[in-house]
Structures are given as C-alpha cells and as structure tokens.
Amino acid sequence: MTLTQQILWGSIYLGICFLIEIALLTWCTQVVRQMSIRLENSKRFLTIAGPISMALGFIVAIHTFQVWLWAIVWVLRDVLPDWNTALYFSLVTFTTLGYGDVVLGEDLRIFGAFASVTGLLAFGLSTAFMVALFTQVFKEELIS
C-alpha cells in the first residue's frame, strides 16, 4: 500500500470507528436515561450504580466491537496469519500498548498506526462520556 493509500484507508476506518462510537454512545445515553427514570424511586445505590454499570457495559462492548473491526481488516487483507494473531495485534494496537512482538510490514505501518489513533480517540471519548455521566448522576443525587 502506498503512503497515500495508507492515509486514505486509515482515515476511512478511523471515521467508521468514530461514527460507530458516537452512534452507540448516543444509544447508551437513551438507554441510561430510560433506566434512570425507571429507577427514580429505587434505593439510592441502584439509582447511582445502575446507569454507571450500564454505561460501562456499553463502553466495553463498543471498544470490543472496534477491536474486532480492526482484526477483520488484518485477516481479510491477509496481513496477519490467523484470528488469534489478528485479535491480539488489534487489541494491543488499539490500547496503544504495542508490545512489538507482532509488527506490520513497511507498506502498512502508517495504516496500522490509525488503529492506535482510533483507540486513543475511543478511550478519550468514552472517558469524557463517563465524566459527563458521573456529573449528571451525582448532580441528580445531590438535588434529591
């Protein structure tokens, strides 16, 4: 893959993951809002723990889905030999851990770096989402 192709395809996959993250966090917001309404008259522990647990479940699922999406790319393009290696590389790259025991060839290094950027943005967006959720949950708890 040429440098231009790596940047183009990396940007496309990054954009897809970003749209998935936004769509699922939006859905999560709606689910958490409905849950909060249902738990309004419940014990204080449930009104705090319920929405937070639900949001964390969504975030884990969203990140897992994105890791799988990148693993699919590595397998379908015959970049990595098997699903185990592809998932491992995808997860290690997505979390920006990067052990270095599995590396891409020179023709895919820039493209592979987009998986790291995807993870950075996903974790940043999820963290901001959780901070906003905690702020809202605790604000509502202080008022009641």
Automatic annotation (TrEMBL):
Top-rank taxon: Bacteria
Entry keywords, A to Z: Membrane, Transmembrane, Transmembrane helix
Transmembrane feature ranges: 6-27, 48-73, 85-104, 111-134
UniProt cross-references to InterPro entries, sorted A to Z: K_chnl_dom
Pfam family of the protein (one): Ion_trans_2
Domain Potassium channel, residue spans: 67-135
Name assigned to this protein: Ion transport 2
